[in-house]
Specification:
By secondary structure, the chain is of the alpha+beta class. 34% of the residues lie in helices and 23% in strands. The longest helix has 18 residues. The chain is globular, with a radius of gyration of 17 Å.
């Protein structure tokens, strides 16, 4: 596995303040959930939809995801019932729920996610083509990959409603852990074996001053997940010193 530690730090106007391998692509993991949440803005978020665990594959046919690979007991407990799209969107971000993500994507459509990426001005290195756990599509070469710079631009175009959801993020041991206590950090993590990522909108308090900013750290290493999180926290602390 080729090692990667990529960083993009910049203003919410897209200006780069600090970068490191920011254009190197990496597997997106759960970071796809942020542009999906933005794409869902156009939906009636109060509408209830059936909860199920099988989905149409981008490669044709259907695939099923497993509860053991997920963190969202509430949605899995609702199998056979319904849930609102707004709550599914919240769980996709806060709990990093895979089932909620796929249920939301089923309603949004991949084309709407592409529209969000285009509006943010991302490069062709960033592609989101399939749902979570769609192994047939992955094996057919349909990639979910991102770069740190592109995700910084996605954050710069993330609406306040999605940022508010990200503030409730359950997983706070990477970027937030490297920043001063009490700092507004709206983040989204992503991880699988060998991959640990975090992306965040950060708004310094009046006490610390400075402009709000976006920070993205993507890592592809042999480190255990907890070690990778500590590395990201250290880079967040360095980014804090480089902010404007």
């Amino acid at each position: 596995m080729e090692q990667l530690v990529a960083v993009w730090l910049g203003g919410l106007d897209g200006e780069t303040w600090w970068e490191q391998d920011a254009d190197e692509p990496a597997y997106a993991a759960s970071l796809v959930k942020v542009p999906l949440a933005t794409a869902a803005e156009v939906l009636d978020l109060e509408r209830r939809v059936p909860v199920h665990a099988d989905f149409a594959s981008a490669a044709g046919g259907r695939f099923t995801i497993e509860r053991d690979d997920d963190q969202d007991d509430a949605t899995w407990d609702a199998l056979g019932s319904t849930e609102t799209l707004g709550e599914l969107r919240r769980r996709a971000i806060v709990e990093s729920s895979n089932i909620a993500t796929n249920l939301l994507l089923e309603q949004v459509g991949i084309a709407a996610v592409h529209d969000v990426l285009r509006a943010a001005g991302v490069s062709d290195r960033t592609t989101i083509t399939r749902g979570i756990g769609d192994l047939a599509a992955r094996d057919a070469g349909l990639a979910n990959q991102v770069t740190a710079r592109d995700l910084g631009w996605v954050l710069a175009h993330t609406p306040a409603s999605v940022e508010e959801i990200m503030l409730g993020q359950r997983y706070r041991d990477a970027i937030p852990a490297g920043l001063p206590a009490g700092t507004h950090v709206a983040n989204k993590t992503g991880w699988v074996d060998g991959i640990t990522h975090d992306m965040a909108i950060v708004r310094p308090t009046d006490e610390h001053g400075g402009a709000p900013f976006a920070l993205v750290v993507l890592t592809r290493t042999d480190d255990p997940h907890e070690v990778a999180e500590k590395r990201i926290a250290g880079l967040a602390a360095e980014a804090w010193g480089r902010r404007r």
